[in-house]
Design goal:
There is one protein chain. The protein has 473 residues and is α+β, with helices and mostly antiparallel strands. It folds into 4 domains: 13-104, Phosphorylase Kinase, domain 1; 110-168 and 189-279, Orthogonal Bundle (Transferase(Phosphotransferase), domain 1); 288-383; 387-473, no CATH class. The protein has helices at 57-76, 111-118, 123-142, 171-182, 198-203, 208-224, 228-231, 249-258, 270-279, 281-305, 311-341, 349-353, 357-378, 402-417, 422-436, 452-472, and strands spanning 13-14, 18-27, 30-37, 43-50, 85-93, 96-104, 108-110, 155-158, 164-166, 232-233, 238-239. A 6-stranded antiparallel beta sheet has the order 1-2-3-4-6-5. A 3-stranded antiparallel beta sheet has the order 7-8-9. It has a two-stranded antiparallel sheet with strand order 10-11. Helix 11 crosses helix 13 and helix 14 runs parallel beside helix 16. The radius of gyration is 24 Å and the shape is globular.
């Protein structure tokens, strides 16, 4: 029988500490809730219920012991891109004993949500994601753990710094399967169809290269914008995705090897993928940089020659490109700022390892490209920004009053000093702003006098968020 408890209503407080905000998921072994820890200044956390299919209280006790053992493994994981294990919570819900795991809440957007919002990702964005995740996978694999469920839903682009976080480890499912096996019941295989390899879905076996397979499957979904079943030929046992994504030959080779059907034909470790990406960086950069520059030049030419009556359609087509452009420039500016801060520091080997190998060429090219890109970004062209307020990166060129220019400059300098991804921060400000003024969603604030009060609200929101982030530091 199921030990699943009744759905917890919003506002319910468990153990005089965790106030339920809302249910955010449900699986075969329980529900997941977003909650506030009222003992920690209403800090958000995630509560995952453990409710295995058992037939007796004795089996439930055994399940709870196994669950505690498995969650103890999670407790030992200490990585900045993995949600922190906070506590095991045993409590009564509607008279029944219930067990929850409490984890850190990672605020941000999943890559699946990102894909739906902006469309397919560029090669540079996907390489960036992979490069950020490889050290995480090295860490958990060195701890003799396999994640087993990598997919766009379980990768979060963290709002605070733009880094990719890996969530939803399978410890709950592992414990439930251990109970099922001991009681002679059927075992639920862990993984997601389309993203998990055959050995995992059919035989329940998982290796480090199984996670690498899932990571590559996630990458091609993000590159093509298509679901795995649209890209995989189950009769041939082969992926057919290359014609639907603009990817350099070198990167294609890396992804295809990660996606090999037989485990022995794949890279056997995340560190090996890192070595290969480092080795292939020159050819990847050469082809990728050419594609980026050609695309950028083509867009500018289109804007220059476009007749005025086509302005709205061009704005719509280029808004997505502009958003990515701002994001890329922001990331490069942030990286450059970090370098300048460390100018007096004698670099060690470890310092150099922090740079993503494929980004060395981008950073070098940025010496020539970035000034032009930034200049282009601040000119009042007909390109619309996705932000509510077109936050001028060079206030000196603005026609706003001096006090407003100084305020803009101060906000941006504070964002940089906190090492926050500017694009993610402005999006966060917009979210709060649009909650107050939903009618202005999709409307860009201008320097006109009628937008003065709205601009003031936008600045106030940005300032309050920065104050909060500085206190958290």
């Amino acid at each position: 029988m199921s030990r699943l408890s009744a759905i917890l209503r919003d506002g319910v407080i468990l153990n005089n500490r965790y106030r339920i905000v809302k249910q955010i998921g449900q699986g075969g072994f329980g529900r997941a809730y977003l909650a506030e820890d009222i003992h920690r200044y209403r800090e958000l956390c995630v509560l995952k219920e453990f409710a295995p299919q058992v037939e007796s209280d004795r089996e439930l006790d055994k399940a709870e012991d196994l669950f505690e053992r498995e969650s103890g493994i999670l407790y030992k994981l200490q990585h900045s891109q993995i949600p922190k294990f906070e506590a095991l919570l045993q409590t009564r819900v509607d008279g029944k004993q219930s067990l929850f795991i409490v984890q850190e809440y990672i605020e941000g957007e999943s890559y699946w949500e990102l894909l739906k919002r902006q469309g397919k990702l560029t090669e540079a964005e996907v390489i960036d994601m992979i490069w950020e995740l490889l050290p995480v996978l090295e860490y958990i694999h060195d701890a003799d753990l396999i994640h087993r469920d990598i997919s766009p839903d379980n990768l979060i682009r963290r709002e605070s710094d733009g880094k990719t976080a890996l969530i939803d480890f399978g410890c709950v499912k592992i414990a439930a399967n251990a109970v099922s096996k001991s009681t002679g019941q059927s075992i639920t295989l862990i993984g997601k169809k389309g993203y998990s390899p055959d050995e995992q879905l059919r035989r329940g076996q998982a290796f480090p290269c199984s996670d690498l397979y899932s990571l590559a499957a996630t990458a091609i979904v993000l590159l093509t914008g298509k679901q795995p079943d649209e890209l995989y030929d189950s009769h041939q046992g082969e992926w057919d995705w290359e014609s639907q994504a603009k990817v350099t030959p070198s990167f294609k080779r890396v992804l295809n090897k990660m996606l090999a059907y037989k485990p022995r034909d794949r890279y056997q470790s995340a560190s090996k993928v890192r070595q290969v990406l480092t080795k292939e960086k020159d050819s990847i950069l050469k082809d990728s940089a050419t594609n980026i520059v050609n695309s950028f030049v083509s867009r500018i030419r289109t804007l220059i020659v476009a007749p005025a009556d086509q302005e709205s359609s061009i704005n719509e087509n280029n808004s997505n490109f502009t958003s990515r452009l701002y994001g890329t420039v922001s990331r490069l500016r942030t990286r450059a700022t970090n370098i300048s801060r460390q100018a007096t520091h004698i670099p060690t080997k470890e310092d150099f390892r922090k740079f993503k190998p494929w980004q060395w060429g981008i950073i070098s090219a940025g010496v020539f490209l970035v000034p032009g890109l930034i200049s282009f970004a601040v000119i009042k062209t007909r390109i619309n920004n996705n932000f509510a307020f077109n936050f001028n990166r060079n206030p000196e060129e603005s026609v706003l009053p001096k006090n407003e220019k100084d305020l803009q400059k101060n906000i941006y300098q504070r964002v940089e000093s906190l090492d926050i991804n500017p694009s993610a921060f402005y999006k966060q400000v917009d979210t709060v702003f649009h909650q107050q003024y939903p009618d202005l969603k999709g409307v860009q604030l201008t320097e006109k006098i009628e937008h003065k009060n709205y601009r003031k609200v936008w600045y106030d929101i940005a300032t309050k968020l920065l104050n909060r982030k500085e206190i958290d530091r």
